[in-house]
Amino acid sequence: MTEWQALILAFFMDLSIGDPLWLPHPVRLMGRVIAYAEAFLRKKCGTPGQLKRAGMLLAGGLVLSVLAVTYALEKTVFWITGNLSAIVGGVLFVYLIATTIAFRGLIDSVLLVVRAIYSGNIPEARRHLSMVVGRDTENLTEKEVLTAAMETLAENLSDGVVAPVFYFALGGLPLAMAYKAVNTLDSMVGYKNETYLHLGWASARLDDLANYIPARITGLLVVASVFVLNMCNRHSRSVASVRRSYRTMRRDGRNHTSPNSGIPEAAMAGALGVRMGGPSLYQGVSVNKAYIGESAREDFIPAIHEEMRIVWVTAILAFGVAVLARYLRSGM
């Protein structure tokens, strides 16, 4: 089994089983290591400067350790089995690749919100939404719940799908797993609040750097997906919607507190004809975020289903490019 074949199988494995709790998962292990390291470092560091240096050590140490361990594990699998055609080695390799991908989990989390909306259970929709967003969800209206779900679907399309696939195409499993370490660090300590301003500074900056190219690739793939879907449906306004998606990405992509998250969100907002962003509450504090896109429709339930179709095509395009890249590399 070659790496490009393993990547295809990993995509279908993720679609089939997602990330079940009964299976060991590298990201959960990384999370436990980060939590232990944070507790230890806070006991040893008393000043902002010390915390900042400790955060740099935490970020660099974890990412390099994950890179080295994954490389060694990959070589061990090759050594034990002789090659990846052996069943045990092949399954392990495919599973490890699948753990870097979060496509099934992303789709399922948003579907739970949509199904609760369909059943008229807004409190349940808010509860499901709170599992995947950082904002306060207790008092959101139906439209606000759907808007937040669309935002997180676009943002996590880059973090959970395109970025790990991009790094796998670039450097194989070790680099893809190292990216997951960066992403996990940011999700746990990379906040710009009083608690993590210093300890999480390095993790947040590293995440910004690691996602810079993947976020922009995601935006372009969203635009391409809009074109593909409209052409498949023989939509007479396909060129206009593609232009709107690309124009909104270029115009509003920077209207976000993150240097990266706004790019795929803006491309998606333009494709759907909706407006994302705006003021939100985080732990009771109002954050006045800029708007992304223009409000050209009010039917947000059809819009989120349309977004899911775009997400599917974007994921398939991303995997297709990555498989081609590894295939060409294997032939060199």
Beta-strand content estimate: under 5%
Number of helices: 11
How does the helix and strand content classify structurally?
mainly alpha
Radius of gyration: 20 Å
Helix content: over 70%
Spatially, the strands of the biggest sheet line up as: 1-2
Outline: globular
| Secondary-structure element pattern, one letter each | HHHHHHHHHHEEH
- Total count of strands: 2
| End-to-end CA span | 16 Å
Low-confidence stretches: none
Mean pLDDT: 89
What composes the largest sheet?
2 strands, antiparallel
What do you see in this structure?
- The chain is mainly α.
- 73% of the residues lie in helices and 5% in strands.
- It contains 11 helices and 2 strands, in the order ααααααααααββα.
- The chain has helices at 3-17, 26-44, 48-81, 87-98, 103-118, 122-130, 142-189, 201-232, 238-252, 262-272, 300-330, and strands at 276-282, 285-292.
- Strands 1-2 form a two-stranded antiparallel sheet.
- A hairpin with a 2-residue loop joins strand 1 (276-282) and strand 2.
- The two termini are 16 Å apart.
